[in-house]
Amino acid sequence: MSYEPDHDDDRAKGVGELLKEAATAIKLRRYAEAEDFCVQALGVLDKASAIEHPSKAMALEFMGDALTGMEKYEEAGRFYKRAMDLSERVFSQENQVYISGEIILCVLV
Question: Which of 22, 52, 64, 87 could form a disulfide with 37 if both were Cys (CB 3.0 to 4.6 A apart)?
Answer without folding.
Answer: 22
